[in-house]
Amino acid sequence: MILSDRDIKKAITKGRIKITPQPDYKTQLGSCSIDFHLGNKFRVFKHSSYAYIDLKGTVDTDEIMKEIVVPEGEPFIMQPGDFALATTVENLELGDDLIGKIEGRSSLGRLGIIVHGTASIFDAGWTGKPTMELGNLGVMPVALYPGMRICAFTFEELSSPVEVMYKNKAGNKYAGQKTPLASKLTYEVSKGVKLKGVAAKNFK
């Protein structure tokens, strides 16, 4: 069940959803979603320094990306075809019986800006600044300003509380993040992380 605006407010009041800083309902709360703002830190690929990404190679994916901090009042320009990781201003923490889903804003989508490629679900027990996979699918550059409303979150109730919350899960990669972190997939592929089932077969 997707939470309505009144249920989102109730969940925040009861601490099932924690958003810091406290959201302004008048400008951020929709009928069944709540807007988050764009942070000022971005992580982009150093594509001129590396020919390709090898998940079994010796170079960590964090090394092939660099962090950019945008000064106050200045834009982050996304050229057509660009990709960047970014976080929201807000910190999000979810209880053990809710998941969050991140979606782009329609007004930005009409310009070609998307906020996630595949990672739309935030598990029960998530905590940290949500990371967005920003992309420009349009044909013109777009200037994005830190502090602008960039995405919207919806929340769904689970059939029952989870046994293990994301932040307590052994091997979780992104809980508590404060900046946009690079992919940790290389740890699964080349650092000896034990995988089970189909995933393990894919990496043999």
Keywords:
204 residues; alpha+beta; Deoxyuridine 5'-Triphosphate Nucleotidohydrolase, Chain A; three-stranded antiparallel β-sheet; globular
Describe the structure in your own words:
By secondary structure, the chain is an alpha+beta fold. The protein has one domain: Deoxyuridine triphosphatase (dUTPase) (Deoxyuridine 5'-Triphosphate Nucleotidohydrolase, Chain A, Distorted Sandwich), CATH 2.70.40.10. The protein is built from 5 helices and 13 strands. The strands form 3 sheets. Strands 2, 3, 5, 7, 8, 9, 11 and 13 form an 8-stranded antiparallel sheet that branches. The longest helix has 10 residues.
Please sum up the structure shown.
With 204 residues, the protein is of the alpha+beta class. It has helices at residues 5-14, 25-28, 106-109, 185-190, 197-202, and strands spanning 17-20, 34-45, 65-69, 76-78, 83-88, 91-94, 98-104, 113-114, 121-122, 127-128, 131-136, 142-144, 149-157.
Helix content: 10-25%
Q: List the uncertain runs.
A: 193-204
What is the CATH C level class, in words?
Answer: Mainly Beta
The CATH topology is given as Deoxyuridine 5'-Triphosphate Nucleotidohydrolase, Chain A
